[in-house]
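Methods, example record. To illustrate the input and output format used throughout this study, we show the complete record for Protein-export membrane protein SecG. The sequence lines were provided to the predictor; the line carrying structure tokens was produced by it.
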Amino acid sequence: METVVIVIHLMVVLALVLVVLLQRSEGGALGMGGGGGGGFMSSRGTANVLTRATAILAAAFFATSVALSLIAKMNESPSSILDSGPSATQTLPSAPEGSSGNGILDALKKPEEPAGAQVPAAQ
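The corresponding predicted structure is encoded as:
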């Protein structure tokens, strides 16, 4: 279901970009889009069609965005940030043979204490 909505969303996005780029510029800041004679965008009716298409595609974009966020929220399982960390029973994988062991995980491990450096128990 989520994949279908994502595909529809992407098609709506591409169509919306295309329709917006096809519209005639009102300001003419770069001197483009105005033009004279009989081109593709010369009639008032074409501008109305593109304006309606933009509004429809914008509504479809909004609807698919809301649908995607609702689908993501329904698939989300409640979890705690404390549950996502490694527990004491989990072991980290050892470094591959031939590696120097100077990775980030190796720097975070506690250095092993030598056998003779144990602290005597307080009495």
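Annotations derived from this record:
The radius of gyration is 31 Å.
DSSP finds three helices and no strands in the chain.
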